[in-house]
Structure formats: C-alpha cells, structure tokens
Amino acid sequence: MAFSPLPLAYCTNVHPCRAVADVPAVLDRHALAVRERCGFGISVGLWLPEAAVAAPGAAGIVADALARRSLSCHTLNAFPFGDFHDARVKETVYLPDWADRRRLDYTLACGHLLAALLPPRGEGSMSTLPLGFKGFDHGPGFMAAAADALLACARGFAALEAVTGQVIRLALEPEPCCVLETTAETITFFTTLFAQAARAGVEREARRHLGVCYDVCHQAVEFEDAAAAIASFTAAGVRINKVQVSCAIEATDPSDPAQREALRAYVEPRYLHQTIARSADGTLHRAIDLTADLIADPAWLDRAPWRIHYHVPVDAERIGPLRTTRRDLEAALLAIGRLDYAPHLEVETYTWPVLPGTDPLDLASGIARELLATRALLTRT
Fold first, then answer.
1. Is residue 276 assigned to a domain?
2. SS (H, E, C) 263-303
3. What b/e readout covers 26-45, taking b as 16+ CB neighbours within 10 angstroms?
C-alpha cells in the first residue's frame, strides 16, 4: 500500500475565510475542535482566497498560526479564488480560469506560501480548477493560453524547488460540466501538454510539478469506474498528486416520490450541483444544476439513476431514501493504495453549511466522523 504517512487532512474551505487574519480563528474554532473529537493527529488542507494569499506577510502569519497549535499543512485548495462563502457562488467559482493571468499569479503565490509551511525538503500539493467551465464562452485561443500558463506554473515551481528544496505539485481537478470533466478528456489534455512541454524543453518540470487531483465525488457523478480511471492515469503517465475523499448523492429511482421529495431539500442557492443521469442504455444526460424544475421534469424521471455533485458526509451510505457513492469511495481508496507513490489525501465536504438537517454549531463532530470513517477505510484497504 502506498498511502501517505502524513496525517489525514480535511479541507478548510468548509469554513469562511476572507482575510489572512481569519486563519487563527478558523484553526481555533474549528480545526482544534475536530482534532479533539478525532483523538488522533490531523492535518489541515488550507483554503485561502486570493485576498488572503496576497496580504503582506501572509506566509509568516499562517506558519506561526499552525505552529502555535501544533498543526501541519501539506496541501492547499487553490480552486476557489474569491469568497467561497458568498450568498451565491455557483459558476463564479471557475473564475478566473487558466487563460487569465490572475489564475497563474494566485497559484504561484499559493505555492510560495505552501513552501513556507512545509518541513525542510517537504512535498506539498495544490488542487486547482480543471481549466474552466464548459458553460462559458472561452474563445478559440483558450486551450493554448491555459497550457502556456500551466507550463509557466511548472517552471515557477521548479525555480521555487531549486531555491527552497520544497516540491510543490499542482493538481488539476476534473469536475462535471467543466473543460476537463472525464478521465479521458483529462488524459488527452495532459498528453498534449506534455508534448508541448517536451518541445519547449521543460518536460521534466511539467511532469514533476503538474498532475491531477482525483476528487472521488466528481468522478462518481460521471459514473466512472474508479479503479479503471486511476489505472488509466497511471498508464498515461499522469501523476495523481492529490485525492479528495468525497461522496455524492445518488437517487436510484427518481420516479419514486419519496426520493424526489428528498432531493428537493438539496436545491440551494450557493453552490453548483451538476446532475448526471444514466439511462438503461448507458447514455449519460447532464444538467448544470439541481433545480426544482429538473426534479419535476417528466423527461428525466425515466433516466435512472441520478448522481448529483453535492458533497455529502463520507461516513454515510444512505441519507434517508437516497444513497451516497460511498462504494465508489471504497473502490477509489483501494486503487490509490496500490500506486507506487502516495498522493495526499484530503476529506473535502465543503457543503456542511448548506446540508439540510445538520447542526451548524456542531460542525466539528461531523467532520471528525468523516475523518474517523476515512481512517477506518484506509486501515481496511
């Protein structure tokens, strides 16, 4: 098995953070409570918006906050650029995209900050968006611009390693309805990217510092077989730098009134919940978001099952009449454990604040249950 010896992390994008000054409070109010309830050492997968990362002395402030609380950080979530806890996030989370210079600048700044948090000659990972959102009009030069920016990022992280000895690996995170959503699309892009890197004389840097974040929820929503997807990345020479431990919602029979009623509780205004249904003939049908109109659409009722990009607690196999994709999580962790290297593992249920029926005052207990359940799965696999 190749699981990382580092402490299991949970992603702090579940907590509001708008400035670097918020970090100590996030750790005090949430991370320490999670660690206490777990009863074992944990790590934090920090999320910092651009405004926080760009603040003067940000790296020192964060490093000091972690050290004072005996917490470690070896992975960042560099996907959301702005306020991830705004009243409405939805498709704006994919902005700026990888053709926008601001995305490169933010990612490089995150890399420098992470390097300051790692122990000497450490290795850190950073998840980022899968180039952009398919629903936006990107223009004909988008893919070339995104590839150029990613190679610039690889060169920047190589230069950072030469100076600090710290290895920072960027992880593009495929997601439903994004430019890179399926494993096949992602491999095609990386094949082209590595060929371009070879022509530019930076193939080593690209392969060392660029790879993927395998979000188990996302690929389960795509109805992908986890073991096959992970094997495909390996065969294509694309490194999985990070794994986000996550589960999606599954409605096995959307024609069932009880399941439809349960789904209505998950229609909410903040985050995008891409929904994919698989017909009996294997055809996949995609909807940008879970809405009341979609749930009531007669054309969708015979398309079953549905899987919804709504991160739900990874310790749950069922939520009322709905299932979760926990079986996909078990298969993914088994496949990850067979790799000959160790991706960073991060539990990422950022939806706790909008989950129906949860107690916002006892968030730490829910996250702790997820970490305990994940640890048990890792022990079994």
1. no
2. HHCCCCCCCCCCEEEECCCCCEEEECCCCHHHHHCHHHHCC
3. bbeebbbbbbebbeeebbbb
| Residue among 269, 157, 134, 143 at smallest CA distance from 204 | 157
Give the model confidence (pLDDT) of 93-148 as tens digits.
Answer: 999 999 999 999 999 999 999 999 999 999 999 999 999 999 999 999 999 999 99
Q: Is residue 310 part of a domain?
A: no
Q: How far is it, in rounded angstroms, from Cα 212 to Cα 229?
A: 12
- What is the strand order of the sheet 322-324 is part of? 284-287, 275-278, 306-312, 247-251, 322-324, 318-319
Residue 124: its pLDDT value, please? 98
Query: Does the predicted TM-score (pTM) go above 0.90?
Result: yes
Domain that holds residue 131: 9-247+323-380
Cβ(158)–Cβ(209) below 8 Å? yes
Query: In the chain, how many domains are there?
Result: 1
Does residue 112 fall inside a structural domain? yes
CA distance 316 to 322: 11
Q: What is the CATH number of the domain that holds 178?
A: 3.20.20.150
Chain position carrying tokens 């899987």: 307
Residue 69 lies in a domain: yes
CB 238, CB 212: distance < 8 Å: yes
